[in-house]
Each structure stands twice: as structure tokens, then as C-alpha cells.
Amino acid sequence: MTTPTSAKRSERVPGFQPLAPFGNWRKRLWIPALRGANLQRAGERWLPGPYVMRHTFATWALDAGIDIYDLARLMGTSVQVIDRTYGHLAKGQAERARERLNRRPSISAAEAADEAGR
């Protein structure tokens, strides 16, 4: 006997018990989490969704100077996706990297020649 794929998983898989009903995940978990983080106040109608929060995290991380490679690893995505979506925010990172490289101690021409001769 085959079960139609449109049936609920609990009907298709014997013994399957979901951890929690997914239908009210937003009410049970997301809204209380937003209120606990003081991101949603009583009486406000607009609630940031998970995608908005993910986008905000990426934007703030890049503004704070997080490397694009580290951000991709933290978010579980590729560097290409981060660059395509948030690349315009990471423009200052190249300038900061140049500044760090220019701050390195410089050596004189004599010291460079001495190093090359070794």
C-alpha cells in the first residue's frame, strides 16, 4: 500500500513524532525571542522576520570590519554569495587592509640590499 506524498509526515512515516508543531513556531518561539532581545515591543505591529535579522547581522558584521571570508563561514554560505549580496558594504575593507599593510615597519634600501645578498 502506498501513501500519497501529500499526506503529513506523521501519516507517511510510522512512529514519526515532530519535536513541536511547526505551524505556530513564530508565535511560540520567534516573537518571544524578539521581545526578550528587546527587538519587538508590545503593541508594535511590524516584526522582523528571520531573513531580515540575517541580513541585519551580515550588514552590521561587515560594518564592524568582519572579514568577508569569516562572515561567509559564520553564515554558512559562500564568499561569492556574500560578495554579490553585501559586496557594496565591504568596500571599506580593502582600504583598511591597505592601511594595515602600509603601517608595517619599512626597511631602508641598505637593509633591503643586505637582506637580498643573504
Describe the protein.
- The chain is mainly alpha-helical.
- It has one domain (about 20-105).
- The protein is built from seven helices and no strands.
- Helix 4 crosses helix 5 (about 80-85).
- The longest helix is centred in the middle third of the chain and has 14 residues, at about 50-65.
- The model has no long low-confidence stretch (mean pLDDT about 75).
Features:
118 residues; mainly alpha; 7 helices; 0% strand; elongated
Short description:
With 118 residues, this protein is mainly α. Helices cover 57% and strands 0% of the residues.
Number of helices: 7
Listing every helix as H and every strand as E from the N terminus to the C terminus, the arrangement reads HHHHHHH
Structural class: mainly alpha
Count all strands and give the number.
Answer: 0
When the domains are counted, the total is 1
* Terminus-to-terminus distance: 81 Å
Describe the sheet with the most strands: none
Radius of gyration, rounded? 26 Å
| Spatial shape | elongated
β-strand percent reads under 5%
Average pLDDT rating? 76
Helix share of residues? 55-70%
Low-confidence stretches: none
Topology of this protein?
Elements: H1 9-12, H2 25-36, H3 50-63, H4 68-75, H5 79-86, H6 91-102, H7 109-117
Helix pairs in contact: 4-5
